[in-house]
Amino acid sequence: MTLVLEEKRSEAMARKKVQAAEKTETRAAEAKNPAVRKPVKRTEMKTSVSVQYMGKDISDKEMVALIKKDWTAKKHKVSEIKTMELYVKVEENMVYYVINGEETGSVAI
Description:
The chain is an alpha+beta fold. It is built from 2 helices and 5 strands; from the N terminus they run H-E-E-H-E-E-E.
């Protein structure tokens, strides 16, 4: 009986040594060849806004086009626009805007 126990112990010890050796080999391989991660390609979310009021319908693209037209009529360049904030007042049929946090104006819709 003691002979059987000793054999089981020696088998268990041999398995542990093999597992330890495999772990060491795996870690060494990972150190030599670290996993190369590809950058995640992120796509920008596309949005569309449409304002409908009293039978009228205007999209965000149409509002931006009107504002750009008004902006260039005031002797500015479209390339100067870094930020554009729109405020729609449907009861007045107007779009108020702030360009680059400073310049303000409005256009009729």
